[in-house]
Amino acid sequence: MSIASLFTDMGVMSVFLLVGLALREIFKPFQKFFIPASMIGGILALIMGPQVLNLVPIPKSYSSLSGNLINLILTCLVFGVTINKDKIANYLDYCCLATSLKGAQLALGVAVGAVLNIFWTDLPKEWGTMGVFAFLGGHGNATAVGKIYDRLGVPGMMDMGIVLSTIGLLAAIIGGIILINYGARRGWTAHIKANDGARIGVGKAILPPEKRFPIGMARVMNDSMNNLLLQFAFLMTAMLLGSGVFKFLGAYVNPFFKTFPRIINGVVGAIIMWPVMRKLGLGDLVDRKTISAISGMSLDIVVMAAVATMNLTFVATHAMPIAIYSIIMILFTAWYCIFYAKHTSEQDWYEKAMCAYGMGTGTSATGLALVRAMDPDAQSVAMEAHGVHNGTTALLTSTYFPAVVPMMAIANIWTAAGLGAIYAVGAFAVGWVLLRKRVAPLLKYRQ
Questions:
Q1: What is the pTM of this model?
Q2: Which of 132-141, 240-249, 393-402 has the highest mean pLDDT?
Q3: How far is it, in rounded angstroms, from Cα 174 to Cα 157?
Q4: What is the DSSP string of 423-436?
């Protein structure tokens, strides 16, 4: 693939992305369900492509875009982030809930997948692991892990992840509205009453002038180096450094290191490079807003390309086990979030439960949207607790799980289930032991 052909392919993608943005702005259901323009554009490309109407040829490069850009996205998650240990204690209840939920989804997903494999023997034995990445990670994470599986010799997992992510996103909003109204009638909500109803804000695409914000802050003079290029250079250097580390380890320590997926190169490089930069007094050159913008742009491209090239035959063939699997995982997620938050959270427990449910079936955005519906005046601590979780415990699992779980599952799916169980039991026990006694006197008011 030449640079010229890549520009042409990106031009085709841009048209679909812009059409997706326009459709999202016009049709309110897309806004209410927080469907991103990248997903709308991808579905449109899929329908117009050779698998359905065969009106538009889908560039071959789309199938390889996700595998290359996911490395960059994961590097963005780590580079420039400093874990604030002080805030973990203040929001321990939510961190324990979200972390234990991730482990439980992995363990349960493997178990449910193994049972369904008895009846649908043509499913990959590793498919049960996709639940935690699709439901709790969304389309981007599911696409990333699916691509890793593809490179490790397990095809079809990215298509599975896209479908599961879509089901989860719908369950997050529709199920969230039902749960919010149920909680309001039971008197569990702290900031709305039963007759207020669930107020999911409509997320329009075009920001009004008063709500627009900068996506980055310049760190160097433009006549020396463009700031966007500076941040991009940091990220690419981290990826190159990580690649060099694995080549060295594979050549001089153990050939096993050569088998590690390329997706974690940037993560390892960032873990090494960022502390060194801080020690040298160069940490202020890193602009997290710009890095997040690079990550967001890459993620939209990944989602668009993955949806446009989804294998419809594979998905249709396995529709029944996917449906059964999704129902079990979503019902468990709803029950677990309510049960655990009720017994460990002292303040705004139902808001935290709904935030975790929205995140555990859709994305962070849907979790925060549910909290917003219950807390129109932004008085709840749930949003801040979620932010602390994303910057601490989630940062660890979001980079560790995608890199390790696929390799574990291919070797032995029960090893992956065991990893999930360790996370689930460990985080559950920490919150239960340290927080339940504090909350116990409040439980009689929550019945």
A1: 0.71
A2: 240-249
A3: 26
A4: HHHHHHHHHHHHHH
